[in-house]
């Protein structure tokens, strides 16, 4: 994706994708028609199983064979598709050369997702199927100033590119998740109390200069919700292993990010709810009752020792975790009454070690039971299936949403002939 197209669409942030005209149709130029036809052919290649032959592409798109042939050759030249290996035909003999089959090339381009936290930065390079190719993690001091934190971000991204041997020109979009409030246009962090001078950094501009592609900034809890909807609890119905298909409940979901700070991401109508100022879901500003600091909002995280002892079934620690869960539910109840979600997902950032899972389940059970008595139609509750990777997964998904718009409308604008030879 070229820097000459700065007005990227981020559909998961509520931007409207290009659609059919609602008034008098405008004249369609030859180039626009060819781009539309290329998008149609590419869509069939991506969705067909098994890999389609030319005749199948002609039939599926209703385009002429010469038109499809020309489009296929252009898509191959630009690295977006290639010729699939012929399936095994053991015991079968057929005259002549077998018809070519075509497959999507997910490594034609890449996206970058970044998870920024007070004490760490993680960068992920993913292909066009959303599969991670390289992940780089960096530890940072909690009090590191904004410009230094930005340098850690760029260092992690460069390291991921180097590890994968991918040139920066092959990155087509990037998204960065961060604590705090993000402006409605996904360009700046406007408040981040726990990241020193982070708001003074134009991190979107820094990454655009590095990558030369569209860049979005989004709240970490919002991205965690998108990640969970995409490849976490939402990946299988009810989050269970014996049922497949998207879970309808993730269309109305509240993701609660538990960590050094408290936040939430809200999915409603299948889309992210951001609010007028981009601050929807900021439950860290709720003043929770009982046992907490009266002079400031939010919930302090559970001490690591308490979590560890609760996981080992220490009665006092278990009681503390249960009380924390009840406080969380009581503070969330008005939010859940207003939104009426089908599902509440608790992030497990406080429980990074699998051995701590019993403590996480204790908190979940206490919160759910207490909330059930406060709500009209109680939702299901579930622990995050992505754990510590929820924000990073959501960042990849957010970045891919921008690329998907182009793949569905004008895919041949993404690359130029000879691109496949542009590797380092």
From TrEMBL:
Gene3D superfamilies: 3.30.420.40, Winged helix-like DNA-binding domain superfamily/Winged helix DNA-binding domain (1.10.10.10). InterPro entries: ATPase_NBD (IPR043129), ROK (IPR000600), Tscrpt_reg_IclR_N (IPR005471), WH-like_DNA-bd_sf (IPR036388), WH_DNA-bd_sf (IPR036390). Residues 36-81 form the HTH iclR-type domain. It comes from the Bacteria. Residues 1-22 are annotated as: Disordered. Belongs to the ROK (NagC/XylR) family. This is ROK family protein.
């Amino acid at each position: 994706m070229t820097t000459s197209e700065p007005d990227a669409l981020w559909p998961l942030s509520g931007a409207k994708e290009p659609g059919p005209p609602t008034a008098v149709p405008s004249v369609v130029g030859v180039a626009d028609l060819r781009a539309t036809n290329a998008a149609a052919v590419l869509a069939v290649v991506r969705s067909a199983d098994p890999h389609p032959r030319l005749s199948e592409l002609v039939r599926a798109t209703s385009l002429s064979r010469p038109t499809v042939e020309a489009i296929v050759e252009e898509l191959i030249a630009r690295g977006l598709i290639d010729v699939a290996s012929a399936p095994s035909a053991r015991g079968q003999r057929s005259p002549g050369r077998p018809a070519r089959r075509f497959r999507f090339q997910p490594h034609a381009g890449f996206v970058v997702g970044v998870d920024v936290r007070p004490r760490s930065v993680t960068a992920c390079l993913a292909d066009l199927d959303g599969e991670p190719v390289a992940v780089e993690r960096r530890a940072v001091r909690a009090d590191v100033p904004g410009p230094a934190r930005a340098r850690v971000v760029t260092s992690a991204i460069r390291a991921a590119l180097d590890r994968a041997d991918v040139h920066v020109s092959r990155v087509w979009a990037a998204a960065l998740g961060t604590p705090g409030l993000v402006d409605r246009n996904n360009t700046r962090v406007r408040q981040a109390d726990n990241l020193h001078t982070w708001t003074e950094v134009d991190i979107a501009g820094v990454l655009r200069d590095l990558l030369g592609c569209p860049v979005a900034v989004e709240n970490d809890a919002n991205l965690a919700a998108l990640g969970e909807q995409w490849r976490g609890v939402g990946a299988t119905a009810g989050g269970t292993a014996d049922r497949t298909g998207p879970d309808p409940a993730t269309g109305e979901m509240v993701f609660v990010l538990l960590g050094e700070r408290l936040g939430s991401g809200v999915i409603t109508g299948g889309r992210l709810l951001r609010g007028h100022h981009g601050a929807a879901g900021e439950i860290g500003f709720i003043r929770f009752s009982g046992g907490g600091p009266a002079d400031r909002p939010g919930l302090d995280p559970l001490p690591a020792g308490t979590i560890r002892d609760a996981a080992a079934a220490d009665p006092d620690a278990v009681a503390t975790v249960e009380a924390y869960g009840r406080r969380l539910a009581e503070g969330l109840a008005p939010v859940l009454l207003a939104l009426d979600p089908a599902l509440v997902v608790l992030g497990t950032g406080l429980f990074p070690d699998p051995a701590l899972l019993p403590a996480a389940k204790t908190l979940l059970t206490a919160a759910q039971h207490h909330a059930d008595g406060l709500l009209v139609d109680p939702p299901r509750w579930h622990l995050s299936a992505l754990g510590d990777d929820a924000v990073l997964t959501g960042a990849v998904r957010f970045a891919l949403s921008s690329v998907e718009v182009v793949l569905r409308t004008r895919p041949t604008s993404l690359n130029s002939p000879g691109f496949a030879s542009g590797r380092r």
